[in-house]
Amino acid sequence: MADIILGIESSCDDTSAAVLSDRVLLSNVIASQDVHRAYGGVVPELASRAHELNIVPVVSEALSRAGVKPEDITAIAFTRGPGLLGSLLVGTSFAKSLALSLEKPLVMVNHLQGHILAGFVREKDKPVREPSFPYLCLLVSGGNSQIVKVNSPLDFDILGQTIDDAVGEAFDKCSKMMGLGYPGGPIIDRLAKQGNPDRFTFAKPHIPGLDYSFSGVKTSLLYFVRDEMAKDPSFMDNNKEDICASFQKTLIDILMDKLIKAAKQTGIKDIAIGGGVSANSGLRSRMVEEGAKRGWNVFLPEFKFTTDNAAMIAVAGYFHYLAGERCPLDVAPVSRIADF
């Protein structure tokens, strides 16, 4: 008999619930919060309040779409962290209350594990294509930039990570600096499609090993725009497509240089990406290009699984559940988690 996993995700500003039958997706409901757009970033207090309003209808809708009764759930998986503490508290509290009332086991999930394992969610009537273990995952989001060696669904080695800012943070902050809006990643990606990626050059860091750094690129862009605007106040308006294309290319070059090095060092040919920035069209194209050149088996997540969603939490929870892992009802959410 199949295991029915209810996944709950509330790490930032998306309230999501999903239902999986083993690893087959039955439903995946997401309620986003537009209120943060006016502030140029997520406001934690507003996010937690919105989660409180959304959590019950979102879970109810996920169960309804899946055609699953609450009592038929095998286990409840939820995001413990990392993320915004107030947001995590809403999802954690609801998951614990539901598990207690239904007398169902509770499984906690690391949000980053969810992004890494999102490619293992299966969908009805779609061919199954999954990486073989071990594989490399480029995990890129607003809070993380890592190269992870995935030995098994529950065994991870971090080969490299950012020593300062994450790549998604670089996108958002530079978009805000240029007055383009929030969230910055999709805006820069859209404008970059219309620009020349080779017109402008921005500084690239020289970091040893497989670690990343993106703070210097942000500073390079800041000084470049400031100096050009001093000479021509309309420079930004007249050149924003080329600026975005050149800036995006710089970030992708930095990401890919270290990923190529990691693949050479490990000899691994199965390469995946995950996290919000994995939706970036330039990065996806570059992954396919490098894969064809280097003989990689490239695995790109579907766009609906790149952003925060409960399907990825449910599939990670499924693997934890099969391994016999359970968590007590007194578990508390954590904003930071040291490792996987």
Number of helices: 9
Please name the fourth-level CATH homologous superfamily of the largest domain: ATPase, nucleotide binding domain
Assign an overall shape. globular
The CATH architecture name of the largest domain reads 2-Layer Sandwich
CATH class of the largest domain: Alpha Beta
Instruction: Give the percentage of residues in beta strands.
Output: 15-25%
Can you list the strand order of the major beta sheet? 3-2-1-4-5
SSE series = EEEHEHEHEEEHHHHEHEH
Uncertain stretches: none
Q: Tally the beta strands.
A: 10
- The count of domains is 2
In short:
The chain has nine helices and ten strands.
Structural description of this entry:
The protein has 340 residues and is of the alpha/beta class. The chain folds into 2 domains: 4-127 and 305-322, ATPase, nucleotide binding domain (Nucleotidyltransferase, domain 5); 135-303, ATPase, nucleotide binding domain (Nucleotidyltransferase, domain 5). It contains 9 helices and 10 strands. The protein has helices at residues 44-66, 85-102, 111-117, 167-177, 184-192, 215-231, 235-266, 281-294, 310-322; strands at residues 4-9, 15-21, 24-31, 75-81, 106-110, 135-140, 145-152, 155-161, 270-274, 297-299. The strands form 2 sheets. Strands 3-2-1-4-5 form a 5-stranded mixed sheet, sandwiched between helices. A hairpin with a 2-residue loop joins β7 and β8. The chain is globular and about 65 Å long.
Sum up the structure in keywords.
340 residues, alpha/beta, Nucleotidyltransferase, domain 5, 2 domains, five-stranded mixed sheet, 42% helix
